[in-house]
UniProtKB/TrEMBL annotation:
It holds the Pfam family WYL. Residues 1-50 form the Helix-turn-helix type domain. It comes from Azospirillum argentinense. It comes from the Bacteria. PANTHER family: PROTEIN PAFB, PTHR34580. Residues 129-194 form the WYL domain. This is Helix-turn-helix transcriptional regulator.
């Protein structure tokens, strides 16, 4: 039920939930009430629709074995291929997940045969990406010094809203005030980055949606 509600970003009717889960509408109403009693923030009512508000976590026991393997594989990739601060955070997250898993699942995660293979050497970042991530989270402008592929230097004010991690390099996606458009900035070519107090005038999600549509990237 929780997973079904998470897939919908707008209120979804009980009839739709019943069809997706293959149960009766009466069962949906009963299960919604049970989840609400357990602390799930589900807004709505019969005949109107239901919407799950963020903040409700499933207990670790609800993880299937393949879900645990997927989490461990993804976290190990980040620990190996992301920048230092994010890699350390990934290792901490994996330790926290392991600590709350039932013993049998924890043993299976430790013995997982899904491994991250060695990749090509990563191009060194020219700037601390933690600065970029904080600016993205707080929707604040960045003042950057940037060198293009020919080595020409420019000073720019940008609105960062995404950070892409590729096998060999990282790319910041931002609205560039100099160009008046969305641009991609290789992290290894950012000479310096200073967070400004000013928040950018558009929401990050709106910029991300515009970029995805322009690039033909589906929402997952």
């Amino acid at each position: 039920m929780i997973q079904c509600l998470r897939r919908h970003r707008r209120p979804v009717s009980g009839h739709v939930l019943a069809d997706e889960l293959g149960v009766s509408l009466r069962t949906i109403y009963r299960d919604i009430a049970t989840l609400q009693a357990q602390g799930a923030r589900i807004d709505g009512e019969p005949g109107v629709g239901y919407l799950l508000q963020p903040g409700f976590l499933l207990p670790p026991l609800m993880f299937a074995e393949e879900e645990i393997e997927a989490l461990a594989l993804g976290i190990r990739w980040v620990a190996d291929r992301a920048d230092g601060a994010l890699g350390a955070a990934a290792q901490n997250a994996l330790a926290k997940i392991a600590a709350v898993l039932p013993p049998d699942l924890r043993d299976r995660m430790d013995a997982s045969a899904l491994l991250v293979g060695p990749g090509e050497p990563i191009v060194g970042d020219g700037v601390d990406l933690a600065v970029v991530r904080r600016a993205i989270r707080s929707e604040r402008k960045l003042s950057i010094a940037y060198r293009d592929r020919d080595g020409a230097a420019t000073e720019r004010t940008v609105w960062p809203f995404a950070l892409g991690f590729f096998d060999r390099l990282r790319v910041m996606v931002a609205w560039c005030e100099l160009r008046g458009a969305i641009r991609h900035f290789r992290a290894d070519r950012i000479v310096s980055a200073t967070a400004l107090e000013a928040r950018y005038p558009r929401r990050r999600q709106a910029l991300l949606k515009e970029w995805r549509e322009a690039e033909g990237i589906p929402v997952r």
